């Protein structure tokens, strides 16, 4: 039976509401796998198109192995999956998130896997993970890295561009106050001081001055997902608006052609600039050395594809109109 997620705000919480700049790579890896397991007729048009492309990629043996491992921990029909799979630090990029995942304390692994076992039977191998098997934990991190690189990275510029459009919409609504921003979310309903939405089970979150971090998701397409552990900072991942138009057609063939034209890593750097970023942001997101990213940015800037400007201590990089045209964005 479907329930309701109810998030209760105090006056102090309004000072600590944060809107993520873009979709989170580790949340998107898990939710992307859920899209693959969802029948096409239950998906919006943009995700039906992505699912078709991704199913071709997942036929490779290594991707199938990563899919099975992560599905054991976070199946698409689960009302709960372990929070260690989506650490808050992944907002700094995939590489940072994977490092934090690999450093998950054994006590947390045991606690969260024990909670998962209360909701559904877990395969036998997870008992070794719950006991703190670091090699298995490294396998989980590798699976997330492989799923992101093989299934999501080819379309990541579209994911981020769609997230940037959503953020712009929320910032425009902010002119009417934070209540107007909450009222602009779908499928949320705002009745001061409670933000509610459909959820697999009835769940109530009292923020108690801790605030809330809201993360847009390209692959979350039905209802929001909330961090389960009340001891962790409150996080809610929400689906991008159902009325958002689908992104432009994008194919693996186009990605391959762009990689041949620019080189694989330079093409990835260009795609990573779907939203404005610093050199460090790009390096962390792509797990590349900052020196290499800096060199690629210099070439892209000299070609008129990227513009850079200093903002305080950082240099911010963004696509020019020519760069967006080359990406088909």
Describe this structure in words.
- This protein has helices spanning 11-14, 25-36, 45-57, 61-73, 94-102, 106-119, 125-130, 134-152, 156-173, 178-183, 252-262, 264-272, 279-286, 290-302, 321-327; strands spanning 3-8, 17-19, 189-191, 194-199, 203-206, 212-217, 225-226, 235-239, 277-278, 306-311, 314-319.
- By secondary structure, the chain is α/β, with parallel strands linked by helices.
- The strands form 3 sheets. It has a 4-stranded mixed beta sheet with strand order 3-4-1-5. Strands 2-6-8-7 form a 4-stranded mixed beta sheet. A 3-stranded antiparallel beta sheet has the order 9-11-10.
- The longest helix has 19 residues, at 134-152.
- Mean pLDDT is 88; it is low at 242-248.
Our count of helices gives 15
**Strand segment count:** 11
How much helical structure, as a percent, in the residues? 40-55%
Q: SSE string, helix = H, strand = E?
A: EHEHHHHHHHHHEEEEEEHHEHHEEH
| Derived structural class | alpha/beta
Oligomer designation: single chain
Envelope shape: globular
Strand order across the largest sheet = 3-4-1-5
In round numbers, the mean pLDDT is 88
Instruction: Kindly estimate the percentage of residues that lie in beta strands according to DSSP.
Output: 5-15%
Summarize the main sheet. Answer: 4 strands, mixed
């Amino acid at each position: 039976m479907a329930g309701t997620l109810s998030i209760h705000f105090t006056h102090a919480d309004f000072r600590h509401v944060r809107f993520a700049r873009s979709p989170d790579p580790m949340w998107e890896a898990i939710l992307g796998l859920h899209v693959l397991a969802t029948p096409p007729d239950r998906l919006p048009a943009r995700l039906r198109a992505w699912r078709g492309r991704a199913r071709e990629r997942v036929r490779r043996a290594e991707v199938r192995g990563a899919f099975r491992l992560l599905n054991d921990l976070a199946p698409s029909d689960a009302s709960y999956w372990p929070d260690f799979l989506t650490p808050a630090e992944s907002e700094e990029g995939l590489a940072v998130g994977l490092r934090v995942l690999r450093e998950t304390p054994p006590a947390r692994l045991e606690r969260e896997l024990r909670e998962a076992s209360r909701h559904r039977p877990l395969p036998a191998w997870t008992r070794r993970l719950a006991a703190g098997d670091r090699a298995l934990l490294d396998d989980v991190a590798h699976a997330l890295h492989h799923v992101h690189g093989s299934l999501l990275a080819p379309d990541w510029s579209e994911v981020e561009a769609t997230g940037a459009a959503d953020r712009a919409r929320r910032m425009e609504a902010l002119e009417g106050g934070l209540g107007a921003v909450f009222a602009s979310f779908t499928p949320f309903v705002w009745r001061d001081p409670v933000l509610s939405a459909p959820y697999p089970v009835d769940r109530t979150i009292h923020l108690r001055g801790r605030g809330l971090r809201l993360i847009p998701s390209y692959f979350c397409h039905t209802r929001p997902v909330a961090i389960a552990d009340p001891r962790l900072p409150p996080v809610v991942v929400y689906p991008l608006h159902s009325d958002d138009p689908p992104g432009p057609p994008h194919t693996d063939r186009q990605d391959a052609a762009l990689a041949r034209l620019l080189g694989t890593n330079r093409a990835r750097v260009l795609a990573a600039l779907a939203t404005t970023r610093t050199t460090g942001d790009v390096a962390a997101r792509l797990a590349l050395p900052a020196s290499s990213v800096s060199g690629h940015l210099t070439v892209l800037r000299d070609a008129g594809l990227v513009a850079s400007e200093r903002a305080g201590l950082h240099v911010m990089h963004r696509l020019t109109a020519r760069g967006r045209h080359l990406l088909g964005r």
